[in-house]
Amino acid sequence: MTKSTTPDGGSDSNALTATQRSRWATRKMTTKSSSNKRNSLLNRMHKKTNSSEKNPSPPDGSDPSGDDGKPPNEISENQIQADGDDDVSETRTLFFNQPLPDSLLDEDGHPVQTFPRNKIRTAKYTPLSFIPKNLWFQFHNVANIFFLFLVILVIFPIFSSGTNPGLNAVPLIFIIAVTAIKDAIEDYRRTILDIELNNAPVHRLRNWTNVNVHEGDISLWRRFKKANSAFFGSIWRATVSLWSKKAREERAKRKAEATMEEDPVRPSMETHRTRQSIRNSLTTPFGNRDSYIEAQDDIQMTPVPSPTPQPHVKIQLPEPSGDDAKRAAAIADMKPNIIQPYIEVKNARFQKDAWKSIMVGDFVRIYNDDELPADIIILATSDPDGACNVETKNLDGETNLKVRQALRCGRSLRHARDCERAEFVIESEGPHPNLYKYNGAIKWRQTIPGYPDDEPAEMSEPITIDNMLLRGCNLRNTEWVLGVVVFTGHDTKIIMNAGITPSKRARIAREMNFNVICNFGILLIMCLLAAIVNGVAWSKTDASSFFFDFGSIGGSAAMTGFITFWAAIILFQNLVPISLYITLEIVRTLQAIFIYSDVEMYYEPIDQPCIPKSWNISDDVGQIEYIFSDKTGTLTQNVMEFKKATINGQPYGEAYTEAQAGMQKRLGIDIEKEAERAKAEIAIAKTRALEGLRKIHNNPYLHDDALTFIAPDFVSDLAGDNGPEQAAANSYFMLTLALCHTVISEQIPGDPPKMIFKAQSPDEEALVATARDMGFTVLSKSGDGMNLNVLGDERHYQILNTIEFNSTRKRMSSIVRMPDGRIVLFCKGADSVIYARLKKGEQKELRVETAEHLEMFAREGLRTLCIAHKELPEETYRAWKKEHDLAATALENREEKLEAVAEMIEQDLLLLGGTAIEDRLQDGVPDTIALLGDAGIKLWVLTGDKVETAINIGFSCNLLNNDMELIHLKVDEDESGETDDDAFLDMAEKLLDENMRTFGITGSDEELAIAKKSHEAPAPTHGLVIDGFTLRWVLNDRLKQKFLLLCKQCKSVLCCRVSPAQKAAVVAMVKNGLDVMTLSIGDGANDVAMIQEADVGVGIAGVEGRQAAMSSDYAIAQFRFLQRLVLVHGRWSYRRLAETISNFFYKNMVWTFAIFWYEIFTNFDMTYLFDYTYILMFNLFFTSVPVGIMGVLDQDVSDKVSLAVPQLYRRGIERLEWTQLKFWLYMVDGIYQSVMVFFIPYLLFMDGQLVTMSGLGVDDRVRFGAYVAHPAVITINMYILINTYRWDWLMLLIVAISDIFIFFWTGVYTSFTSSDFFYGAASQVYREATFWAVFFIVPVICLFPRFAIKALQKVYWPYDVDIIREQERMGKFSHLSPKSTPDDGVMADTKSNKSKSSNSSRRSKKMVKHTAYGSVDEDLRPIYPPSTATRTTTYNQHSQNGSDSTNYTGARVSMDLGGDGVRQTRPSIDRARPSYDRMRASMDRVRPSYEASNDFTSAARLSRIEATQSHSSVRFPRLRGLSLSKSAHV
Fold first, then answer.
1. What angle separates helix 578-596 from helix 1131-1160, to the nearest 10 degrees?
2. pLDDT tens by residue, 586-617
3. SS3 397
4. pLDDT one-digit tens code per residue, 736-746
């Protein structure tokens, strides 16, 4: 079945002239083994019965259907059974170019199956649903319902004489309108993104019938919604265009596009004249052909021939008898093809259409760099091998490319007419969110070559996730892909993982509902008391009211009491203050504006400030206890830079890493000076290196800014300055890097030109880029090899085989025929893996020195790889290739057999050297993580990356350290698929129980209750690592609680290879299980689910992709800005809101109960104590502004001190600023002050003689109300001032204006006769001595308890912030001033001025750049460990792909050394190596590590691995590949 072997097993003559690539799964599946699924699928298919269909007619136009009227390729109904799966609830069967069976049609002949549209809406509202839906959400607020009831109540005059109903409704209308506008603005951006996405172009097959859907079936409701959206959209655009020039231009452009003709037909792949199509024109003529069965043999879009075909196709025929041997051989040699030549071609064409128009069953063509609009099964690609490259950044955050394969049966498809002739059925599993799993099959009937009259063979081929392109990915380095849509819209995996856009409410707002209900209960009691008292008063016949009043308004005592009850609700309504909600909306809006305006969080390179998208949860940011972060693009830049190398025992490369700075700081070195000196040395070295490189060869592809490997000594050795031996070694090393890879090169024209690379791994891209800079440039790949420019000489190297990297092998190899005819195997991989395969007894000294160099590189935080080679005799290679071809065509255990064959050839290698690559973190990531940790925040990393890579980053950014013991939870998948779910759960529970015993816990409910109350950070003794498959089981309801409690005991938690849905599940587990506030931060569409699940979602708006930013609550440009958002603005907002709410309830308590006390003397007849304008002005001007200013501008400490002392944030984690105790204390204080405010004036007023100059008495209720109102306002504002930390000029001015305003209003308002009974009251009251006595005495008596308690508390029981404030006043934080050079390491992000919200000095944005981190003091730099003390399951923190090496360097004795134990020193070239010498000195002086004391150092361990593996390789040479693929874990 393959062209690379002959029937007798010998090699074809052309077998050695084509690149052969061995591919297998590059990651572990998160469910049962894919090979097991494939086999079971084929077995089930084989058991299915064949339908009684007739032979197809020849392609002469005659009727192709059989006696039963079915087309020959139609699958009978008893075959329409998709293979089930445990976690899939439905299946779907799709038919192409054949009618649906009757069972899938309704009585009208339309398809029974319905599929969701491909139109996606992440916005919460539409123009039609906005008003009702927004009102529905707003009236979930209990207070809003109460206020609406009051508005209705006031309409009836019997309850509210003298109250204007319209005026009373204004506050509620205002709060509803402001909130609605805010929600509309927040949702508008999401709507714009949805519109852009849904209308993105895609090439879809038109003028073709898709039988799986009923096109044109648009309901009346949908038409109505579309018309409404268009109507409101046009109104909005017309309104905006009145003042916006940009809007006018867009509107004109839209009109122009509407008048344009339909998108022209895209030229056929044949008519699209390129150099390649012209070259293929001889075999692919421009015209119609009668048959296209073998067309794929002639069309080669790229000149790389297909190596070993996938052995997936299953022919469903009975076992042949002896006389059918020839027919069986024809079937075996038959090439699978779904194209039927007899089908008549119509006028189908691929035309541009919108994403939203795509339906299940459509053919689509995707072009290079296009984003995938739906989940698509690949039928054909521009590569004859059927391969395509896809970037999955939006799914898993990784920018490296992944390879996907087209189905073998569809690779002949090229054009629209081929799609019309393709007749097949796809049986698919139902939609589910697992990104790493898919199970389906394609079935068709194919005529047997040479037997046109026989019944066509039933063919089938399984479909896996490797044959599918998922929505949200981008096609890269592939000219085109042709496929069929299998899932659309909300059935696609990325959308199923995203979830719905939630409506988030701040925690304080949720908790405040309880307090509002409590106040409402107090209000009901007050009103009920008023009703009873008033009813009883009117029922008395011996009271004066019975004789002098005209009678009660109700006519009876009971009815009067009933009316009084509702009138009291109106009078005492401020007890549940609507003005509080108005103030909170204004405060939160202003807080959002200040956050947006903070120049310290502005990132100039992409012009990105911090953008609050949800304005109402700023106080939640001040209570965060757990942060869940993505890795790639969030913590790291995903940029790999080649920094150092060791070649033939010589170390090269100048670099100064954060790890090196950390080690030097532990030794007491002034690292700021050291960093400046090192950078200066590196700059000089770079200049020398560039000069030397250009002397050797004027490389047109060398760009100064792209050079990362700065090694002038390497350049001089390459030039031969230190002998030909080292020059040859350096040249051969770089040649190896240029040949051993799978990258795709692309030349960008220019002067000079630029050569860029696309790779499946950023590490590999960095290696090839460095080879390019050194003069070994990969120019292109041809059909049988690779073209290189080697120091100006263009050469061709024939690549015979490429054995690709996977997570089990931890290495890759290329077998190359050199220009001189030699066959050489080049291998690169993890150091422990390569050392285990070195040739025993040779290169003893080189191995020891290389191990020590790699160890030093890893100590600098670099990722290490080893490079080796081996020359192969021609006979050895041919014998091995025969074994390889047999393994490649095996139907069962193909991956394991390929791995075992690869193991055979990758032995007895010779070491060339090693490389060191820096995985660059984002600026300030270690500092930020350390700062957040000091604040008591726990950070978990949830990533789709490999376990080893995540652990490397964990050490680099301070999440892990050498004192931690790593707990690795891993449940191995069952390759056979026979293990049931309960067995996996039992294995996971056993792991959990075993590790929980370490901490002395069992996972009980009592322990969970204790954990909820404890907010202390766990001891930094343990870290936990878990993969996605194991996470699937521990998140089961049976184990979730145990897993949660185990994680709470660990300082750091890393979840690797997790899907977006699993990320959200982990966030939900912690948020709900521990009742804590959570924050999620990410940068890709794969992070949207956890961003929306968390209480606060933060999206990083990077250069690429803004899906996470659009779905988030806050969008920032860099991870380091999170420290300022959380520790400064979050803490400020939480404390401000807590104080604002408490003081608001307090002030309304004082005011309302003052009226209540007055009603006692009126038998609760609801007579107003104050003039009605006082009641209106109280919450409008008299007291609301100071408390609002407190909520916006108050600061206990400055932003710099907040970052200098992150421990201040812990009050937010423990939620101590807003508690029920605090609420009730403020309420009690309010009642006490209301008693003082009312009764002190009352006692003076009663005995006073209030008369005018004419002798007219003025002792009426409104003038008495003035006696009460003035000191009440003064007291409330002074109380707010006492509770305010920052007394700046603005706060004092606002309080003074509010106090004066009541005098101003009384004086002005009472000067007009329209004030009725209040006319002239100002001149009358203000001249009374008793008024001024009350005015000064009442505030003193009211405020004395609060003042005394606060004074005692600050002196004897101070809070942390009180101590810090005192220290700040003493000048202990004066070094934080921008005028001084900071000497405290916690000042990572505070060298620039305060933000606008801190009202301090401002600087232009030009002066605020992240480059300020260059001079940051190093206290918060990561302190990298000299070793890692872990269990046997621990991976090394720095070396590549899980190597356990490179931890500590000591003078160890190699196992290959002689008995004297003395290592012979290899001759070294005598010269200065600043970086090497600096690192060597640091390592010589560092303290011994745990591993060193246990004979666990890198050099010794590599030697031990080498010796052990060398011995074992003699006994089991061919089984090692299989054994290495098995995990050592449960």
1. 160
2. 898 899 999 999 899 888 888 888 888 888 88
3. coil
4. 999 998 888 88
Residue 598 contacts by C-beta under 8 Å, 6 or more apart in sequence? 609, 610, 1124, 1129, 1395, 1396, 1397
The length of the chain in residues reads 1530
Does 859 or 1186 have the greater pLDDT score?
1186
pLDDT in tens, 1006-1043: 888 888 888 888 888 888 998 888 888 888 888 888 99
| pLDDT above 80 (res 987) | yes
Separation between Cα atoms, residue 1230 and residue 1238, nearest integer Å: 12
Closest CA to 4 of 668, 627, 886: 886
Determine phi and psi for 601, rounding to 5 degrees: -110, 20
Rounded Cα distance, 1261 and 1258, in Å: 9
pLDDT of residue 276: 38
Average pLDDT over residues 868-884: 90
Give ∠ CA 1356-1358-1360 in degrees, rounded to 5: 155
Residue 910 has pLDDT above 70, yes or no: yes
Per-residue pLDDT of 193-234, as tens digits, reads 778 888 889 999 988 888 888 776 666 666 666 677 677 667
Sheet holding 457-464, edge to edge: 91-96, 424-429, 439-446, 457-464, 314-316
Tokens of 1185: 């502004």
- Tell whether the model's pLDDT for residue 1382 goes beyond 70: no
DSSP per residue over 185-244, as a string? HHHHHHHHHHHHHHT-EEEEEESS--TTS-TT---HHHHHHHHHHHHHHHHHHHHHTTT-
Could you give the residue numbers annotated as active site? Answer: 630
- Spatial strand order of the sheet with 363-367 comes to 349-354, 201-206, 363-367, 480-487, 375-381, 468-469
The mean pLDDT value of the chain amounts to 75
List the alpha helices (DSSP H) in 630-670.
658-666
Q: Which residue has the higher pLDDT, 1497 or 428?
A: 428
Write out the H or E segment, with its range, that includes residue 352.
strand 349-354
Distance from C-alpha of 1436 to C-alpha of 1428, rounded to nearest angstrom: 7
Question: What is the amino acid identity at position 94?
Answer: L
Q: Which residues contact 1114 (CB under 8 A, 6 or more apart)?
A: 595, 610, 611, 612, 613, 614, 621, 1096, 1097, 1098, 1099, 1125
- The arithmetic mean of pLDDT across residues 348-369, rounded, is 89
Residue 190 vs residues 123, 124, 179, 186: alpha-carbon distances, Å: 5, 9, 17, 8
CA atoms within 13 A on the CB side of 647: 23
Mean pLDDT, rounded, for 131-150: 80
Radius of gyration of the chain, Cα coordinates, nearest whole angstrom: 39
Q: Record the tokens describing residue 1083, joined without a space.
A: 């940068």
What contacts 1103, CB < 8 A, 6 or more positions away?
606
Whether 1017 contacts 930, CB under 8 Å: no
Which is nearest to 303 in space by CA: 781, 778, 777, 744? 781
* CA 260 distance to own-chain centroid: 40
In terms of pLDDT, which residue wins out, 1281 or 1375?
Answer: 1281
Residue 1353 in tokens: 């508390």
Residue with the bigger pLDDT between 314 and 408: it is 408
- Give me 1141's structure tokens: 């709410």
Q: Please report the sign of the dihedral spanned by the C-alpha atoms of residue 1024, residue 1025, residue 1029, residue 1030.
A: negative
Of 678, 683, 732, 731, give the one whose Cα is nearest residue 710: 683
Q: With CA atoms as reference, report the closest residue to 670 among 1376, 1412, 1419.
A: 1419
The closest of 184, 874, 210 to 485, measured between CA atoms, is 210
Determine if the peptide bond prior to 752 is cis (ω within 30°). Answer: yes
**CA 1453 – CA 1018 distance, rounded (Å):** 40
Contact 1279, 1299 (CB under 8 A): no
